[in-house]
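chain below, 499 aa
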Amino acid sequence: MKAVTIDTLAPHIGQRVTIRGWIHNRRAAKGLVFLVVRDGTGLVQCVVNQKDAEPDTWLTAESLTQESAVAIAGEVVADARQVGGVEMQVTRLELIHKAVDYPITPKAHGVEFLMERRHLWLRSRHQWAIMRIRNRIIMSIHHFFQEQGFLQMDAPILTENAVEGTSTLFGIDYFGQPAYLTQSGQLHGEVMAMAFNKIYTFGPTFRAEKSKTRRHLTEFWMIEPEMAFYDLDMNMELAEDLLCRIAQDALKDSSVELEVLGRKVSALQSVRKPFVRISYTDAVDLLNSDKTADLLSTHESTLRTEQIELEKERAHNSSVYGQAKKWKKRRLDARAIEINARLDEITEVLRNIPVWRSSARSFEWGGDFGGSDETLLSWHFDRPVIVHRYPAAVKAFYMKRDPEDDRLALGMDVLAPEGFGEIIGGGQRADDLAFLEAQIEKHQLPREAFEWYLDLRRYGSVPHSGFGLGLERTVSWICGLDHVRETIPFPRMLGRLSP
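prediction:
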């Protein structure tokens, strides 16, 4: 009997096949056992009928526990009510391993409980959808750049110098020489762009910020294109095209996963060109404006209404729980997890709104945008917005100055809509040797560690640009997740190094 995966069952309707997987859920009725099986590609309901099953198969079906490993043989039949439009009528069931006391039950669990069991939490339907979308985004990025004629190259993980500032480095002893885990592949990416014109790197990066915000990880993945002969406008155009491709591919290829997550696809359908581009100065004016204050008030009112409705639903579900049948209790348990998580999110935002209101109104030109500032700016738009020409003082030493205003750097950030904030940061790189030498001295950086970087300005210097896209923040935005910790299989955050 042919062994297949669950995602390929539909073409086998009317045929007998074998699947191998784990018990996601089990319920019983008189003479019937319903097994929901997962194999990593999807879910399928398998029905064991006592009158048709062999005695050993029936006894095994009755004793199965959550996450037990099984091999199931049976006929594939069409059933539009089921996930994937099919189910299996079981003829034979083999127990490969019986799981005992699986700790993650359908009941509500706190985030810390789940994070401590991340190695098991990844098996859940929700995490299954997130990881598959992450994979889809990764493939979209590779296809986009390869189709555009870019060459993928690799930057080193161990470096001798800082890229984004010395305060966020993880230092190590490299055979008696100080070295650091890379903050970015950008400087080495510039080297490769001068050799190959258009390149991109895709690898892990590290930041030692002692931050616990929902947008921070200490280890994350960055996609960093670098292009010779690109100016700031060309750089922004490339960023627009990339994000549109990612959103379009997610809508086309990840509809099932987005539905599992309850993601509003209309938000992704709005991701199309042209993006709004505003200068840093105009962004500051927008933050200070009555328009932002009114937007905050409207958002606060909407959240309070949602909070009241969710609390009513939670109270109602609690009142009927005791009389509910077992299958209904499982649904109520699952809904309780969703309600509690959303109420926690709403409570956090409502607590922050007065602070955000004050910060936006009093924000002064020259400061760097914080997470709340990026959130408020992104709320004004239904698609990503590009903020460009920041004060040079808040940007990296290698950023080229605006020829029309030396106070400004030719940098840009792309803010995702719906409050997700910055997902891309980049700009045009300084290409003048004397300017870079002065910047290295001004920032008190070790000159010897950057001599190879300065060589790029000695031998064939050209205008060039690039940016970095944070993979986890992008996954968070596409999936509609509140926190980046769910966007990577094993998140590394302040205080978390396991599992």
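The chain has three domains: 2-97, 118-275+383-486, 292-359. Residues 326-362 form the longest helix (37 residues).
thats it, cya
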